[in-house]
From TrEMBL:
<dbReference type="InterPro" id="IPR005861">
    <property type="entry name" value="HisP_aminotrans"/>
</dbReference>
<feature type="modified residue" description="N6-(pyridoxal phosphate)lysine">
    <location>
        <position position="221"/>
    </location>
</feature>
<dbReference type="InterPro" id="IPR015421">
    <property type="entry name" value="PyrdxlP-dep_Trfase_major"/>
</dbReference>
<comment type="subunit">
    <text>Homodimer.</text>
</comment>
<keyword id="KW-0808">Transferase</keyword>
<dbReference type="InterPro" id="IPR004839">
    <property type="entry name" value="Aminotransferase_I/II_large"/>
</dbReference>
<keyword id="KW-0032">Aminotransferase</keyword>
<comment type="pathway">
    <text>Amino-acid biosynthesis; L-histidine biosynthesis; L-histidine from 5-phospho-alpha-D-ribose 1-diphosphate: step 7/9.</text>
</comment>
<dbReference type="GO" id="GO:0004400">
    <property type="term" value="F:histidinol-phosphate transaminase activity"/>
</dbReference>
<keyword id="KW-0663">Pyridoxal phosphate</keyword>
<dbReference type="InterPro" id="IPR050106">
    <property type="entry name" value="HistidinolP_aminotransfase"/>
</dbReference>
<protein>
    <recommendedName>
        <fullName>Histidinol-phosphate aminotransferase</fullName>
        <ecNumber>2.6.1.9</ecNumber>
    </recommendedName>
</protein>
<keyword id="KW-0028">Amino-acid biosynthesis</keyword>
<keyword id="KW-0368">Histidine biosynthesis</keyword>
<comment type="similarity">
    <text>Belongs to the class-II pyridoxal-phosphate-dependent aminotransferase family. Histidinol-phosphate aminotransferase subfamily.</text>
</comment>
<dbReference type="Pfam" id="PF00155">
    <property type="entry name" value="Aminotran_1_2"/>
</dbReference>
<dbReference type="InterPro" id="IPR015422">
    <property type="entry name" value="PyrdxlP-dep_Trfase_small"/>
</dbReference>
Length: 351
């Protein structure tokens, strides 16, 4: 067995609504607001697309998701050869780590970011450098100081999970201008669709200048397809050609591929979802206690407190399952009804 597995454990999900109800004797509805899923669900067109392909379940998928590739290529205006799909971004992160990292290599990222960057690096026996947060968000200058010619990968998460914070186009551009040009910079934009900030990066544009800037996006969050597992990376065709060697031949299922195409085609629905999310998000920041919340560009709010368990329990009491962290609680923005209940709790909580 790989020795490094001794320092890791399998992903621990939170308790399900049913398990929590039984454990705490809670009556009434419990809402899962712990994993940043889109409670509204995907576009209604997704269900139609799935139904239209139900008679093909015995066929393997087309390797490399060619129909979805065409759709994304057109949507983003990038060449088809520059896209690689995974069973969720989780698998994309795994494939890149597996393709690039060898024992003793070094990755640089932030502390308090998406755990899969660390996890996969350790599996490949790479060393992980975690740069402390600055003002609750990614410290690009701090990361730059840690990057040198030995660095194999840099992971940036924008907006960042779990903090919800973002860095701007100018900050990313200045970072890419100074990072050694052979160091791949992976930019995870899982929450891209929820962003409303005007100065958020146009990463596709930056890719025209920087061959080492790679972009990751997913159908799990705003598109509401977390259960179907589709994510992708946009990179140079040289990088994609190599990473594709790692990809399990039938990783994205047939149904997932058609569901993602249908979701992508319904941009009006996506706009409606993100508009509602922005409206609800604003309500959290309109209360005085929002000085305890990190500024969010996502579908979640990170509440800073040294009593995360107490806050988690109070939110559970109003029917909302959130996600506690050592220095706070991450709340996925839900429907209006739950948000109002959570805001009442946040108004009277003793931070
Ligand atoms: C949710 C999330 C992912 C994983 O998404 P999947 O496509 O569902 O695997 C990746 N990165 C970040 C930052 C996320 O929050």
């Amino acid at each position: 067995m790989k020795k490094q597995l001794q320092q890791l454990s399998a992903y621990q999900p939170g308790l399900s609504p049913q398990a929590l109800k039984e454990k705490f004797g809670i009556e009434g509805e419990l809402y899962k607001l712990a994993s940043n899923e889109n409670l509204y669900g995907p576009s209604p067109r997704v269900k139609e697309a799935i139904e239209a392909h139900l008679d093909e379940l015995f066929y393997y998928p087309e390797t490399g998701s060619p129909s979805l590739r065409k759709a994304i290529s057109k949507h983003l205006n990038v060449d088809e050869s520059r896209i690689l799909f995974g069973a969720g971004l989780d698998e994309v992160i795994l494939m890149i780590s597996r393709a690039v990292l060898t024992p003793g290599d070094k990755i640089v990222t932030s502390e308090a970011t998406f755990g899969q960057y660390y996890h996969n690096a350790i599996v490949e026996s790479a060393e992980v450098v975690k740069v402390p947060l600055k003002n609750g968000g990614f410290d690009l200058e701090g990361i730059l100081k840690e990057v040198n010619s030995d660095t194999s990968l840099v992971w940036l998460c924008n907006p960042n999970n779990p903090t919800g914070t973002y860095f701007s186009h100018d900050e990313l551009e200045s970072f890419l201008e100074r990072v050694p040009s052979h160091v791949p910079v992976l930019i995870d934009e899982a929450y891209f669709e929820f962003v409303t900030a005007e100065d958020y990066p146009d990463t596709l544009k930056l890719q025209e200048r920087f061959d080492n800037a790679f972009l990751l996006r997913t159908f799990s969050k705003a598109y509401g397809l977390a259960g179907l597992r589709v994510g992708y990376v946009v990179a140079t065709n040289e990088a994609i050609e190599k990473w594709n060697i790692i990809r399990p031949p039938f990783n994205v299922t047939r149904i997932s591929e058609y569901a993602a195409i249908a979701a992508l085609e319904d941009q009006d629905y996506l706009k409606e979802i993100t508009r509602k999310n922005a409206k609800e998000r604003e309500k959290f920041y309109n209360i005085e206690q929002s000085k305890h919340f990190l500024p969010s560009q996502t579908n979640f709010v990170f509440v800073v407190t040294d009593k995360p368990q107490a806050l988690y329990n109070e939110l559970l009491n109003v029917g909302c399952i959130t996600r506690p962290f050592p220095n706070g609680v991450r709340i996925t923005i839900g429907f209006e009804e739950q948000n109002n209940k959570m805001i009442e709790v946040l108004k009277q909580f003793n931070y």
